[in-house]
């Protein structure tokens, strides 16, 4: 016989379940902004209530850079989005072109860190104002023009980026993004790369820190070749130029790719730019 005020086990189970859901949603609303985009996406599968918090602007604005509004205001075309989550993935999947059209910005999908690509016309290219290089439209490029090498024996490409533009306390790598035309020549020889914080080091000391790379690795196997080019998802090739840790508030990073020793004639190189992005956590 059930007396007035008695609560059976089913009622207690329902009550505990309700409290558990409320507690879970309350915890999630507090914890999620301090996690990662991947965690937020996973949490959205727990329940409808949790999904509401996991997809909210409060959560996803924390994953965007603090200066994201200033950055997208510099886009050469409007950046449309329906929510902060939509904006996050829009910036991950579709780089935006900034300022004068020679700089692109996107987010690293895993952690929301800032990534930039310096377009070919934002780079310092030796002999680029002469008949040895030409700038042309490429339908495969995010930029209006890429640089195509007609013929040089002295190949030198440099780029610089301010550390304040990048995410702080983050390990980055810089990559030359390029292609090689069917009538190319001169890229079976080693080139040198250098990535460093600008701190007044003399040019005479640069050769010590340089890395040897091949845009077209030789057919013979060699254990000394540690950096090889890779095919990107967008169809371009890329080769790592070097890594650096960004812990400087005010400074610059100097990035170089050179082949000025062998002095063989080279032609057919097509340069889209230099991509600067965080290193994956597992690397």
Written account of the structure:
It is a single chain. The relative contact order is 0.15. The chain is 22% helix and 32% strand. The protein folds into two domains: 9-63, no CATH class; 98-278, Sandwich (Jelly Rolls). It has seven helices and 14 strands. Pfam families: PP2.
Second CATH tier, the architecture of the largest domain: Sandwich
Poorly predicted ranges: 1-7, 9-23
- The CATH superfamily label of the largest domain reads Galactose-binding domain-like
CATH class of the largest domain: Mainly Beta
Q: Determine the CATH topology of the largest domain.
A: Jelly Rolls
The tally of strands reads 14
Evaluate the radius of gyration: 25 Å
Reported for the largest beta sheet, the result is:
9 strands, antiparallel
Q: How many domains in all?
A: 2
**Helical/strand content category:** alpha+beta
Q: What separation lies between the terminal Cα atoms?
A: 67 Å
> How would you sum up the global shape?
elongated
Share in β-strands: 25-35%
Average pLDDT, rounded to a whole number, is: 84
Helix amount: 10-25%
One letter per element, helices H and strands E, the order comes to HHHHHHEEEEEEEEEHEEEEE
How are the SSEs placed, and which strands pair?
Blueprint: H1 9-31, H2 37-43, H3 48-54, H4 57-63, H5 68-72, H6 84-93, E1 96-98, E2 103-107, E3 114-119, E4 124-125, E5 133-136, E6 146-149, E7 155-162, E8 170-185, E9 191-197, H7 206-209, E10 211-213, E11 230-231, E12 237-246, E13 252-259, E14 267-278
Antiparallel strand pairs: 1-2, 2-3, 3-14, 4-7, 5-6, 6-14, 7-13, 8-12, 8-14, 9-10, 9-13, 11-12
Helix pairs in contact: 1-3
């Amino acid at each position: 016989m059930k007396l007035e005020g008695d609560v059976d086990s089913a009622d207690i189970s329902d009550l505990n379940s309700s409290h558990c859901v409320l507690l879970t949603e309350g915890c999630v609303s507090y914890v999620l902004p301090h996690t990662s985009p991947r965690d937020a996406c996973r949490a959205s599968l727990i329940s409808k209530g949790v999904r509401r918090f996991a997809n909210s602007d409060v959560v996803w604005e924390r994953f965007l850079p603090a200066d994201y509004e200033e950055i997208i205001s510099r886009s050469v075309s409007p950046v449309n989005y329906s929510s902060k989550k939509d904006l996050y993935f829009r910036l991950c999947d579709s780089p935006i072109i900034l300022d004068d059209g020679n700089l692109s910005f996107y987010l690293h999908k895993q952690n929301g860190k800032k990534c930039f690509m310096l377009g070919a016309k934002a780079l310092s290219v030796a002999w680029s104002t002469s008949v040895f290089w030409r700038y042309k439209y490429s339908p495969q490029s995010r930029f209006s023009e890429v640089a195509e090498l007609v013929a040089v024996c002295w190949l030198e490409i440099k780029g610089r980026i301010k550390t304040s533009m990048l995410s702080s306390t983050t390990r980055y790598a810089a990559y030359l993004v390029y292609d090689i035309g069917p009538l190319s020549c001169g890229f079976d020889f080693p080139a040198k790369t250098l990535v460093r914080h600008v701190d007044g080091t003399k040019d005479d000391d640069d050769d010590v820190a340089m890395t040897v790379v091949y845009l077209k690795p030789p057919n013979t196997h060699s254990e000394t070749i540690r950096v090889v080019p890779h095919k990107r998802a967008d169809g371009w090739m890329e080769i790592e130029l070097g890594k650096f840790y960004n812990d400087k508030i005010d400074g610059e990073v100097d990035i170089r790719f050179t082949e000025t020793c062998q002095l063989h004639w080279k032609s057919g190189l097509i340069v889209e730019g230099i991509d600067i992005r965080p290193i994956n956590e597992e690397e």
